[in-house]
Write a structure and sequence with these properties.
The complex is a heterotrimer. By secondary structure, chain A is mainly α. Chain A has 19 helices and two strands. The termini of chain C are far apart. The chains are: A mainly alpha, B alpha+beta, C mainly alpha. The structure holds heme-A (2 copies), dinuclear copper ion (CUA) and copper (II) ion.
């Protein structure tokens, strides 16, 4: 009798609450729970919800660009005239939409997804402990997101409208804007505060609560990724907070940190011009990007970690160059702090500074290259199962290559002159953010759902979701490279104003319809989740026959996570080792014990 | 069919001297990345097909290979670093103020929600004194009314004219928020920074009508902040310029007759910056 | 049998959770104030005249010096209170914690007078770029002082209940934070009050 299948028999009882644990009340269990798994679920649900909101905004954006003077079908009639006169979106509302889209997708979707969701779920389970170091702080950092989100969208319904400065909120524009902007700044400040508190908790937990035998270099890639990311957050986000504080002062108290003398401006808040001047707009950009470039790695590195684990598991092969992968993440993390200027090549920053930022930026592509090649190396010689989790992970790799390579163009300041602030950039970051990071999260959902809810997701729907998302994603965003090279600027409500952009309208329309397809493809995911929660087949303890500790816990673990004593005996990637008849060797299985491999669940391959 | 993937054909026609160099650099990177793309995707497809799960075939247990690791760290490093150094010269030529060739024509451009303002020297052929202190909504350049050289300067809105085959120096700034001076056909893009004068230069080689776009979000009408640039052969340019000068001279004469000031006076927009003022 | 086992064990790093969290938080705080100081340096160089003039003529060095004394002494008393709690001399712990509270309050009171005096003179954050920094930095520092006072007061009050207050670890962590708040002021004081080439 193998230890693994012994556990499997206990699943039934192991499933919910535990003997001496008196059941917490509903509120404590589901609303203000301090259990990291519940918090992870809360993050997953809210971020998926905001993905819909941000996505809907995106579709409105797309409609306006493709059909600048046509009413938006269905939704258009619901909007007030100040936003959409007879359903035709107004330029002012368009800029609010794109600001909200960007801010929601970055700060309420992707960052809380890769850190809040993956981090909260994976860290305690994968390092073999019962919960975060400070569970209450953890709960607090989730709930802070709710008021923060309300403030971010605070302008909603206000006469003066929502924030409209773009997600980058460059002054002076953001400084002279109205109340919506003021609230937005406050909201972002809170979001930052929340993610700092989360990150501090992650670092402490990983440093202090690892199970017996879990040395740093036995940690799965997911944990390494989350660890480095958490450090980036603790060091980077405060700088954003500082710049937002100054921006808030400028906007609300009419100080002049970022406002030079004698400008012809008036505050949309009170119609005055009380700025005494003496400030510098570029200063904000430096502070902002000092955070926001590391931030783009904060948005993708944890996803990279999850993808590494998924690929290794479904290729039944050890991750290729584990240490190199770890150092690559460290490299990305460190270099991320010295490349911010590549967002400012055309901003009026000294061209000589520009040159140095070109070099640092181009160097940062190297650790990414290392990761890509190591993923390929992992697949090489594997025995690959195309589960929906694996398919999403492969989507990550392939889309990251495209998105990364387009980054190389902009990294060269000379080439960036022409493509800066065009749709070429928009294409670039959707490839890395959606194509890579978000697909990685999809993969993580398919991979960990069984442990998260104790139910298997429906594989064939999962594959459909992957397939249609993948196809429509590329149909949506690849053509953006082309119109970008045609000179199509970002953040313009109506391209037809320019003669040289008129030829691209058909392509814009094409993109829009592809985007709508992309939007609706997401229903496969939603439906799958809801359906499986109710009717999905019960998950075994270790459905993917993986090595990492979370699979030692019972499916849908209760408070306290584990029902067996956890000791780690080996690295996380001991797949297909010589002289073992089973093709995996879990971290928690004592060397003397031999594990008869469970027969592979029918639904994977 | 693959012509779709020929990214170079989407560029609008280039009509500036350094534009060719910039486009060439794009092409270089395009072909390098295209090669990398096919290399990596080739590998990816190959392994996915070759190593898909097959009954009875067990995966290898290899943990990696330091030699490979080393190669694919070093190769990209050199390749990328090479790229950076290789493209630097073009960057310096276009943007480094020390490298700007001696200008034949110097004009000023202002971004102003949501218009482009242009200033040419007047009859006296010099750009007169200006100071932000004098800046008002009707006098965005802040021309000094007491400076005769300033009084006769020519101000244009959303339309400007330049001769071909001449080194043009644009002194660029903004009176309110950030804007970006984007001439797609000239491969010129530079943010307009309030409180700074940026130097932008180019040299056009083909007469015609070209569009000037604003490439930095500057408010609700950002999309509509469009200007037009007419490039002329020298003599056509001169005729246009002379016409503008005489127009301005007549205008000034008319003002003098009506007793109007040559440069409109309005209260300066900014107030309350003296230490100790309440409100 | 399936009971949740107690997986809690000695912190791997040897530093207890609370302390580690605080150290990391302080690293974060340092970056936060570095943002302000970075901006301060850049804009001070760009507006050196305004900075020197405003600082020299409108700031009250005497009051600020008093505040400096307050904070430094409070750091000391804080340390002493921890020392005595660890050796559970209840009385001395309470005295020194009380003193720390007093100094902290004293600091805020002085700040209050400084601020209201400025407002009376019609000086506001928007008055000029120097005062923008003055109010921004002292304001956020003041908030940090307040953030220290609240848990401190709570512990102080608790220590008088019959259960008393015994969690030396907590007080120690608070102490760490308090020394940081003190340190920030040690940078703010010269930067805002003293750092000007004396006007002949
Ligand atoms: C997840 C987010 C993410 C990631 C990972 C990246 C990754 C990179 N980004 Fe991107 N970027 C953004 C998100 C991201 N970016 C966003 C949101 C913006 C816009 C912000 C705004 O203005 O709104 C932006 C904008 C942006 C700019 C500014 C453009 C402009 O405004 O003009 C630049 C310029 O250098 C840049 C560069 C890069 C580079 C060099 C990388 C590199 O890290 C990429 C490295 C990866 C590869 C290179 C591919 C894989 C490697 C191989 C396949 C090896 C093959 C190589 C050899 C064999 C030699 N990015
Ligand atoms: C993770 C980040 C992320 C994601 C996922 C997306 C997703 C999408 N983005 Fe995103 N985008 C940004 C980040 C992101 N974007 C950022 C940072 C900017 C810059 C903002 C700025 O300039 O300040 C930007 C800007 C931006 C622009 C440029 C606007 C401009 O400059 O004028 C455009 C235009 O096409 C665009 C389009 C889209 C589309 C069509 C999607 C699609 O993928 C959306 C499809 C997904 C959905 C629709 C949601 C899922 C739908 C459901 C679950 C069902 C409910 C929906 C329906 C009923 C249809 N985005
Ligand atoms: Cu001016 Cu955009
Ligand atoms: Cu960047």
């Amino acid at each position: 009798m193998s230890s693994v299948s012994v556990h499997a028999e206990h699943d039934v009882h192991a499933d919910h609450g535990h003997g001496h644990h008196h059941e917490p009340s509903f509120i404590r269990k589901y609303i203000f729970s301090t259990d990291h798994k519940t918090i992870a679920k809360q993050f997953m649900v809210t971020t998926l919800f905001f993905l819909m909101v941000g996505g809907l905004a995106a579709l409105l954006i797309r409609w306006k660009i493709a059909y600048p003077d046509q009413a938006v079908p269905i939704i258009g009639s619901l909007l007030p005239d100040s936003w959409a006169a007879e359903g035709v979106i107004q330029p002012g509302f368009y800029t609010q939409l794109l600001t909200m889209h960007g801010a929601i997708m970055l700060f309420l979707v992707i960052i809380p997804m890769v850190n809040g969701f993956i981090g909260n779920f994976a860290i305690p389970l994968m390092i073999g402990t019962d919960d975060m170091a400070l569970p209450t702080l953890n709960m607090f950092s989730f709930w802070l997101n709710i008021p923060a989100a309300m403030l971010l969208m605070g302008g909603f319904g206000l006469e003066s409208g929502m924030a409209a400065g773009g997600w980058t909120t460059y002054p002076p524009l953001s400084v002279i804007s109205g109340l919506g902007q003021t609230l937005w700044i406050a909201g972002l400040f809170l979001v930052g505060f929340s993610s700092i508190m989360g990150a501090i908790n992650y670092v402490t937990t990983i440093l202090n609560k690892r199970a017996k035998g879990m040395t740093l270099f036995r940690m799965p890639m997911t944990i390494w990724a989350l660890f480095i990311t958490a450090i980036l957050i603790t060091l980077g986000t405060p700088v954003l907070a500082a710049s937002l504080a100054m921006l808030f002062f400028d906007n609300f108290l009419h100080t002049s940190f970022f406002i030079p003398e004698h400008l012809l401006i008036t505050s949309a808040l009170d119609g005055t011009n009380l700025w005494s001047g003496g400030g510098q707009p570029l200063l904000f950009q430096h502070l902002f990007w000092f955070y926001s470039h590391p931030a783009v790695y904060i948005m993708i590195v944890p996803s990279m970690g999850a993808v590494s684990d998924i690929i290794s598991t479904f290729a039944r092969k050890p991750i290729f160059g584990y240490k190199a992968m770890v150092f690559a993440i460290m490299g990305i993390g460190f270099l991320g702090f010295i490349v911010w200027g590549h967002h400012m090549f055309q901003s009026g920053m000294s061209p000589l500074l520009g040159t140095t930022f070109v070099l640092s930026t181009i160097v940062i592509a190297v650790p990414s290259a290392i990761k890509v090649f190591n993923w390929l190396g992992t697949l090489w010689g594997g025995s690959i199962r195309f589960s929906s989790a694996m398919l999403c992970a492969l989507a990550f790799v392939s889309m990251f290559i495209i998105g990364g390579l387009s980054g190389i163009f902009m990294a060269s300041a000379a080439v960036d002159i022409y493509i800066h602030d065009t749709y070429f950039i928009v294409a670039h970051f959707h490839y890395v953010l959606f194509g890579a990071s978000l697909f990685g999260v999809f993969g993580a959902i398919y991979y960990w759902f069984p442990k998260l809810y104790g139910k298997m997701l429906n594989e064939s729907w999962g594959r459909k979701h992957f397939f249609w998302s993948f196809v429509f994603f590329n149909l949506t965003f690849f053509p953006m490279h082309m119109i970008g090279l045609g000179g199509h600027m970002r953040r313009i409500a109506d391209p037809t104003v320019y003669d040289f952009l008129k030829p691209f309208q058909p392509m814009n329309a094409f993109i829009t319809w592809a985007a709508i397809g992309l939007g609706f493809s997401q229903f496969f995911l939603l439906a799958n989740i809801f359906w499986s929660l109710k009717y999905g087949q019960k998950a075994p303890r270790n459905p993917w026959r993986a090595n990492t500790l979370e699979w030692a816990a019972p499916p849908h673990p209760g408070h306290g996570n584990f029902d067996t004593d956890i000791t780690v005996y080996r690295g996380p990637y001991e797949f297909s080792q010589e002289g073992r008849d089973s093709d995996y060797y879990p971290q928690w299985v004592p060397p003397e014990e031999e594990t008869v491999p469970e027969k592979e669940p029918a639904h994977v391959h | 069919m693959f012509s779709v993937l020929d990214f170079l054909r989407y560029f609008p026609e280039n009509v500036s001297t350094f534009g060719f160099e910039l486009d060439r650099l794009f092409a270089v990177i395009w072909y390098i990345t295209l090669a990398i793309f096919f290399l990596t995707y080739g590998l990816l497809v190959y392994v996915l097909v070759k190593y898909r799960q097959k009954p009875g075939v067990k995966a290898s247990g290899s943990h990696g290979n330091n030699m490979l690791e080393f190669t694919w760290t070093i190769l990209p490093t050199f390749l990328f670093a090479g790229l950076g150094i290789y493209t630097d010269n073009a960057w310096e030529v276009t943007k480094n103020e020390q490298r700007i060739p001696k200008p034949d024509i110097e004009i000023e451009v202002l971004g102003k929600q949501f218009n482009w303002m242009f200033r040419y020297p007047g009859a006296d052929g010099v750009l007169g004194k200006q100071s932000p202190k004098f800046r008002t909504v009707d006098n965005p350049f802040g021309l000094d009314a007491n400076d005769p050289n300033a009084v006769d300067d020519i101000i244009m809105e959303n339309e400007f004219h330049l001769p071909i085959n001449k080194n043009i120096l644009v002194r660029l700034s903004s009176v309110d928020v950030l804007h970006s001076f984007f001439l797609p056909n000239f491969r010129v893009k530079q943010d307009a920074l309030p409180g700074n004068w940026m130097k932008v230069w180019f040299n056009g080689i083909k007469a015609g009508k070209y569009e000037l776009a604003c490439a930095e979000l500057c408010g609700a009408s950002h999309y509509n902040m469009r200007g037009v640039l007419f490039m002329h052969a020298q003599q056509d340019y001169n005729t246009w310029y002379d016409a503008e000068i005489s127009k301005r001279t007549q205008q000034l004469a008319a003002f003098a007759a009506e007793g109007k000031p040559p440069i409109p006076k309005t209260v300066n927009a900014d107030i309350g910056k003296i230490v100790g003022s309440h409100h | 049998m399936s009971v949740a086992l107690d997986l809690r064990h000695e912190p791997v790093s040897g530093i207890n959770h609370g302390k580690l969290v605080m150290w990391i938080f302080l690293a974060s705080e340092i970056m936060f104030f570095s943002g302000f100081f970075g901006a301060f340096i850049v804009l001070r160089n760009a507006n050196i005249d305004i900075f020197t003039e405003s600082s020299a003529t409108h700031l009250n060095v005497a009051l600020a010096t008093l505040n400096t004394v307050f904070l430094i002494s409070s750091s000391l008393t804080m340390a002493l209170s921890i020392y005595h709690l660890e050796r559970n001399n209840k009385g001395l712990f309470q005295t020194f914690l009380g003193l720390t509270l007093m100094f902290a309050f004293g600091f805020l009171v002085v700040k209050y007078f400084e601020y209201s005096h400025k407002f009376h003179d019609g000086i506001f954050p928007r008055t000029n770029i120097f005062f923008a920094f003055y109010f921004l930095m002292t304001g956020f520092h003041g908030l940090h002082v307040l953030g220290g006072i609240i848990p401190m007061a709570w512990m102080f009050v608790r220590s008088f209940t019959k259960k008393g207050y015994t969690n030396a670890k907590r007080v120690e962590v608070l102490g760490l934070y308090w020394h940081f708040v003190d340190l920030v002021w040690i940078f703010l004081f010269p930067a805002l009050y003293l750092l000007f080439p004396t006007l002949h």
